[in-house]
Structures are given as C-alpha cells and as structure tokens.
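FAQ: What does the model actually see?

It sees only this:
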Amino acid sequence: MPNRQQNPKAKQRSSLTFRMNILFFSIFVLFSVLIFRLGYLQIVKGEDYVRELERTEEVRVNTSVPRGRIFDRYGRILVDNQPENAITYTKMQTTKSAEILEIAEKLANLIDQPTDKVTHRDKLDFWIIRNQEAALKKVSQEEMTKFRNENEELETKEINQEFDRRIRDRITEKELEQLTEFDLEVLAIYREMMTGYNLSPQIIKGENVTPEEFARVSEQLADLPGVNTTTDWKRVRQSPLAILGRTTVPSKGVPKSKLNFYLARDYSRNDRVGESYFEAQYEEILQGEKSVVKNITNKKGQVVETVTTFDGLPGKDLVTTLDVELQQKADEILERQLLDLKSKRGSELLDRAFLVAMSPKTGELLSVVGKKIEKDKETGKPYIVDYSYGTFTTAYEAGSTVKAATVLMGYNEGIIKPGTRMLDSPMRIGNITLNTLFNKHGSVILDDLTALERSSNIYMFKIAMGIGGRTYSPGMRFSLAPGTLQTIRNEYAQFGLGVPTGLDLPGETVGYQAEPDTDVKLLNLAIGQFDTYTTMQLAQYISTIANGGYRIQPRMLKEIRNPSKDGKYLGQVVEEVSPTILNKIENSESEIAHVQEGLRRVYFGTNGSAKRQFATADYTGAGKTGTAEVVYYGPQREKWRTNTINIVHVGYAPFEDPEIAYAIIYPWATTIFENNYLPHANLTARELVDSYFELKTKYAEEGLSSSKVEKSIIKHSDEKLDEDEEVETVNE
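And it is asked to produce this:
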C-alpha cells in the first residue's frame, strides 16, 4: 500500500521538474534571441539607423510671430503691430556662396534694394568675388612664402588672414568705383542673405516692399530656391512715451551685450527683442513662440521635405497701469510750465522737469512724464525730447519735501512726539548761521504741524541733533554721535528714499549718498539738501504716508492677456498683477495721521506754502513743497559748481481716501536766490490733480473702467511713431 501511494507523488514531482526545465530553457532562448537582435541592430545596422536619424532635424524657425501689443489701463493701444509685405531667404546647410550670389542677382532684377547699409568692407569682399584672378595677383606666392618663413610660429589660419588682409589693402578706390549701381544692389541683397542662419528665414526686404515687387518675386519663386514672399510686421508706437521701450529690427537682431543670455533661451541671433524699458522688462511675455519645423534631408544633407510640427503662437498682450489721457495732459502741463520757467531770468541751467503720478494704494503708475530741452548741434535751435526714464534714472536734492519723513523719524526715535513745540530762531554753530526761510532773524514757537505747514528748517535740524545725542545751545561746539548719519538714512529708507523702489523697469538708480565732511553738513540731510532722490522715490515716499504707512512697489504692468480673437475686445486675462507691499513704516497710525494733518495744512492752512494754489480746489488734498539750494553738476561742465535751486512738490488727493499721489521736480530752476518766488511745481501739481478728477468724471459718464474684465480695444490715436524719439521744437 505505501508504494502505491508514493508512486503518484513521485510522478508529479518528476513532471513539475520537467516543466520547469522547459520554462527555463524557453526563457534562455528568448533572451538569447533578444541579445542577438540588439547586437544586430547596434553592430550591423547601427550606422544605418544613425544616418536615418540624422536625416531628420527639428528646429525652431524664426517666423513672423506677432509680438504682443501694449495697452493703457482702459484698453487704448500704446504699441501696435503693423503688417508689411516681406521677402525672405532661407539658407540650407549645403547652399554654396556662388548659389546665393546667383539668387541675389536674380532678385536684384525684381526688386529695388537700398544700398545705404553697404559698408566699405562689403565692397572689398564683393570686388574680390567678382575679380578673383585679379585679387590673387595682388599678393605673390614669393611674398607669402617669405612671410611664412619669417613667422614660423603662426598657424595656417593666421597666415591666410594676413593674405586676405594684404589683398584688401591693395584694392584701390578706382577699382571699387568699377562696381555699378546694379552691382551694389546685388551686394546689398547678398549681404542680407549671408547674414542669415541655416534653416532660419532671413528678411531680405521688409520695409517699403511695393505690391509690384511682391508680385514679381511671387511669380518667380520656382526659380529662386530658398526665397519666399510673406507677411512680416513692424512695431508701431502710438505714444511717444520713452519708457514703453524699443525693439530691435531683424538687421540688428539680439544685442551683442546680451547675446549669450538670449541664445541660452533658444533665440536666434537675428530675432527682434525688447531693447529697453517696458519692452525689455517683459520680453519673454511679449515675444511669442516660434514655429517648429522638421527638416528631412537626404544622404547628401539636402532638405527634401519640411514638415511643420508647431505653428507658433503670438506674444501675449500687456495692459499697463497708465492712463494715456492723463499722461497726455500731464505731459502738456509739465512742458508748458517748464518753458515758462525757462523764460525767466536766471534759468540758464534749467533743462529738464519730471512728474510721476501713481495710485498710493496699489502702486499703479498713472502717469510718468519727463521733459528735456536739448539743442540741435548744427542749428543751435532748442527742442524738447521725452525724458520719462529720467524719473527713475536721475536723482536730485528734494529740499523740504522730505520733512514729513523727518518728523515721523523724530517720533520713531523718541526725539519728539505729536504736538511737541520747539523754538524756531537762527542757530549759530561756530561761524555758521542756520535759519528758516520765513524766519531769518526772529523767534517763533512752533509745534510739529506748524513746522510742516510753514516748512521750518530749524525744527528739522533739532530733530536731527536729537538723533545725534545733542541739544542746541548758541555757539556750541558741534558734534554728533557716531552712527547718526546711518540712523537717518535707515529711517528714510522705510519710505523708499535712497533705496530701490522695486519699479518693474530696468535701469533704476537709488541716488547719490555722500559722506559729510563736517557734522553740521549732516543736518542738511534732514531738510533734503544733501542726499539725492529720484522722482519715482519721492512718489513712493508720499504714497507711503498717504496710504497709512505701507511702502508699495510702483509698477507699470497691470494685466497679462491672451491675444484678441476678434480685434474688438482684449483677450482673456492670463494674470492680474497684485500690489506688492515692500514694508510698513514703524510709526503708529496716530503718528501717521498727525503728519497727514500737517501736510493738509500745507494746502489749506493759514500759512500753508501751497495755499495760494490749492485753497480754491473743490477737493481735499495734502502735500509738501520744497526748494533745495544745491551746487550744479549737470551737463554744462563749464558751469559746474554754480549755486542753483531745485523746486519740488509732493502730494496726494483726496485727503480722506487718497486715489492719486504725485511728485514733481524742476532741477536747477534758477540761479537767483533773493526775492524769487517760483510757483511752477505747485501750479503743476494743482493742474495735474484737476485733470485727474475731470477725467474721473468723464470716464464715469462714458462707462469706462479699468477694472472691467471685458475691455474694448480703443484706437486712441491715428498717429504712428517710428523708432526715433518724437521731438518738438521750442520757440525761442
């Protein structure tokens, strides 16, 4: 019985072992076949597959993808694209110079090509191509053999360069004159074709292509390999505002200074890119995406088929924070006041003026204006150019406009408190006498609000002395505690004075900070007559006080949108930019409110320094005037070290719920110090705020709102500006 029971189990184990052996053998055979196949593909067929792979190359092509457009906050076009007929040429890897020259000659018979870009070096090279035998005879073999023997350390490449240089040096002007007008046209076309890159279309003629030229070339495309007729675009500005920036043209391409930066981001050398300011800052958003094509080549490297794998996408549209109508009004106001000030006696140094208006709650820039008077070098006649970028790239002493920051600094450092009263009378320190403009000889008791209203220098000097650990006494030996200068600058930095504002445009400066050679000079820092500040910094500073103590980043970008689908409405919102709070000043709400009241008195108080301009306004507001006695170091070097005056104004409105904050500077306004009241900065401020509220009423009646998601595209002006800055002649 046991033997009969064990036999089936033994048979079962034997069968399982056999089946496992069959399975392992099958796996071994399969792996052997797989290894054999891989070896066959890699060793026997490897080179064939590599060659097949190399027949296909996928590249991004520099097609005419429209750049994103730029709008103001209400949908009015600031920068547009204008379509233009264009003739392009695409060079293949195997294309020879002789073939390109032949095509250039054919094109020269079909189009008129400007020759103004042809250089002397181009003519030399072209003469050599046309006269190869004559060119070679200009340098003998014996001459080059001798040169080679005398310079054995030189490589073959360097010897060939010397050979080419000697040929060019010996081509005479008379020989170059043999080139006909037709030859120069061929050369102009040829040089454009040669500057292109393989498989990337190069624009041969993109401006002023006539319908006849376009038609003639289109009809001959079969005989012009690589040539194509297409639609290109040209960047057209509807506004002369310089901070909108510029783009390069295809003939210039990527700036050499940023070549590696752009090449690393898959740009081509002849791509159009933002060259300055807003166009440069948001280049990657505006640029769009190139089409991608797959070029299939034969064994000789010749392209036999081109397949588009991605059609490309136009750049996204950008909505700025600017109000173009307010910009135009502010532009006119500032220019008119500048010219009026320039007509006054003592204005020989005056040549510029600046204005920045922004929302104190969001940092949105509503208007950025800069004007500069220049003279034509040939005629000597003056003309005005847009200098809006000077609002953040140039800095000046701001005078008494900084006194609100000085008072808040006094609170924060425990030197004074709201309501503190001090004596304003001339201060005698050594052989120096310091005083206040309205009180050069007498004595008057002032509290902090009156000190702001009447612009007391002495009150501010005493705050600075307190920070330095000193109390004034007549004839005292003067010194301040170490670190006083840095403490004051740190306090001012809370408001954006002397530090970057965070502006979303390149090139911002933070102003100049010198080291005072005496502690007495340090006191001038407290009244804005030592460090220099930009107009943008002053706008951020007054906005910080207006909004209750929050330093907001000023910015030009409001929204990013997809391109319009119908040309009537802006595209869908991709991103809406939110306000950025950089810091909160360390003062309490009650301290800030107290200083705000002092600034309100500047406009509406009995002795307010801007009362004459604002007392009749039908809105509330607050601000601070300033005059800074400075030493001139402007563009007229022969007049350096001349004593002059900057006139400045900062403010905001309405007082209870601020909507607009502004800063205005007229640097080097006059060289006359006595009895020379100049209201131009105050007048500019009043006219600006009047214009703001007038436009606000108008927009409400028209139903125009910057907060709407759906915005109509508004063509604000039929005027089109080229890449040159618009200038305006000044009547002498």
